[in-house]
């Protein structure tokens, strides 16, 4: 049974940049554990921001990544989402993809704002109904 892990972003991460840096820490951990990760972004702007941050989010950290095939960590925009993946990471998605890629592990984030939390709750319910084993973790800062 696939596993979906939701990470609660603390309210102390005030800016989009700070929240994305926190997401990069989870992405690095997922890559180290799973060996391969696909990051799903809603648009080109978010994909580019994550691409930039994966180079600089932490001194001394290295996450080999690309916005195309060929690396272990791949960043996708909505039109290029994979059909299958070992590990999927949702980065600032409001809704689940119409056709959810097949995966072993899925990671999503619960933002601190109430409106964004509602979207995360809806995704949580949909994934649970789709047969995922659900987990929720606080993101330590």
Automatic annotation (TrEMBL):
Alphabetized InterPro entries for the sequence: DNA_pol3_chi, PolIII_chi_sf
GO MF assignments: DNA binding; DNA-directed DNA polymerase activity
Organism: Acidithiobacillus ferrianus
Lineage: Bacteria, Pseudomonadati, Pseudomonadota, Acidithiobacillia, Acidithiobacillales
Coiled-coil ranges (or none): none
GO BP of this protein: DNA replication; positive regulation of DNA-templated DNA replication initiation
Pfam families for the chain: DNA_pol3_chi
Name recorded for this polypeptide: DNA polymerase III subunit chi
